Amino acid sequence: MIRPLKTLATYRRLKRYRAVIFTFIKYGFDDLVDRMDLMSLVRTRRPPGIFRQKSSAPTAQRFRDALSDLGPTFVKLGQLLSTRPDILPENFILELEKLQDDVRPLPFEKMEQVFLEEFDRSPGDMFLEIEHEPTASASIAQVHKATLPDGTKVAVKIQRPGIIPVINTDLSILLEIAVLMERHIPELNWVNPVALVQNFSTSITRETDFISEFQSAQQFVVNFADDDTVIIPRVYRDYSSEKILVMDFLEGVKISDLDEITASGLDLKTLAQNGSDLILKEIFEHQFFHGDPHPGNLFAMEENRIGAIDFGMIGYLDDRTTRLLGKIFSGVINRDINSIIHNLDEMNILPKSIDMMAFRFDLKGFIDRYHGSTISEVDLDEIINDSLRIVRRHRIVLPTHLATVGRMMMLSTGIARKLDPDFDMLAAARPYVRKLVSSQFEARTISREVMALLEEYYSMVRFLPANLRVILNKLKKGQTSITLKHQGFERLIKEIDGASNRLSFSMIVAALIVGSSLIINIDKGPELYGYSALGMAGYLVAGVLGLWLVISILRSGKL
């Protein structure tokens, strides 16, 4: 968990903060900089040479260019945002998907220092052979092909020296900006920028910890150990550390290179089916999946098998979420709007401010549109895009793992259709969805849910006396207060207040009449036409007030 940036004590941090601000100004986002008052935060004014870039480029493209200029952390942020179609519109998603993580490789001599720091040994002492030219180079690490002493070909992923402090500085700046964004730009609060940055921090921190990636890769090896259509590279613990990861080198063709795949004699339709099965099994069977399943992480292998690499970003579904998803699917199949909304609410993804009537209307229209259609009549991309439009319209922010699932389905559909234009992802997903739905009605699942419910109620009853004692003690010590707020009584209170005012006026009028009558009978003081002037004045005031009271009652319409 990262903490908000309290001070900009070091020159390096202050310099980086200014670079971030000036870059966003350069690409035309000075209005956001001004609204958050970022210039005063870094105690500087806008330099004369920094002007808004005069470009006709769309906002989404300028945003992508700004992130690209700011380097690794911001590129990774853009890549994460490209997986959030529930938050960003399609034009932003398409632009952010273009962000590339390819950077110029560092000289091998600098990468050797990492081995000395981690193992106190040089690469030459650990490997029979290691290539100095990397096979891949990214912002966090670069990969070199090597040979173990037993002759096994391996890929050696080495973290770039000094990258962690850079990332930590950028994460602090991003969190500070997110805090200011929530404070000064309330129309973006529904996105919850602070939580978004916190989730990004967790993701990129995990990606820089190669021990975590090692454990994830091991889990994938176990999950697909008996699957002949998938190859997951083995990882080697004795050669791996927090900054170095060694795994089998996969000799395959990138899944996006159709010409080379065809030249290799592989079958495109079979690869499309095996690739989609890989994704669907990750989600629906193992509930443990790639967080970034882009084509560069998938390979076409011998015998039409799919090879998968890069397990730094992963997602998972717990049993409860999976059960709720199954109930939502069941609700869609049965056109049960109440069940769908109830289970969405159970997942805590419906905002408090949602217009439930409008949401129900959109949900019903969505279900009616596709209900009864055959597989050939509908398209998974179309279904996902329609559902995302509803999500964005009602400002529903999906949990990261659910957004990743949706993104995986869209990416896998695109990859499969490049291999086989006639591929039907919905037909491929149907057996997995049917199995998930039917599992909700199995005796074992129902009994597990009943036991969990009974355990929850037992725990609540068991600890009720202790919880009540704590509450009473806090009330006794004045540490807790109870506030009662009435709702719906405003009209009644207003009417009672009006009635009491009229009653008070009536009493005053009556008192004036009685008092004036007594004064006239006493026959003292100045006279007017033979009557007491003071008494006559009292009658006059009483008459005016009485007339006003009558008019007020008549105007209210209540006699």
Summarize it.
The chain has 559 residues and is an alpha+beta fold.
Structure notes:
The chain is of the alpha+beta class and 559 residues long. It folds into four domains: 11-100 and 168-185, no CATH class; 101-167 and 186-249, Phosphorylase Kinase, domain 1 (2-Layer Sandwich); 259-441, no CATH class; 490-556, no CATH class. It is built from 23 helices and 13 strands. The chain has helices at 11-26, 30-35, 38-41, 59-69, 72-81, 90-96, 108-119, 123-126, 163-184, 193-207, 210-223, 258-263, 268-286, 319-334, 337-346, 356-370, 380-393, 400-419, 425-439, 443-462, 464-476, 490-522, 533-556, and strands at 129-130, 136-137, 141-147, 153-159, 230-231, 244-248, 253-254, 288-290, 298-300, 306-308, 314-316, 527-528, 531-532. Strands 1, 2, 3, 4 and 6 form a five-stranded antiparallel sheet that branches. Helix 4 packs parallel to helix 6 and helix 22 runs antiparallel to helix 23. It is elongated. Mean pLDDT is 81; it is low at 1-6.
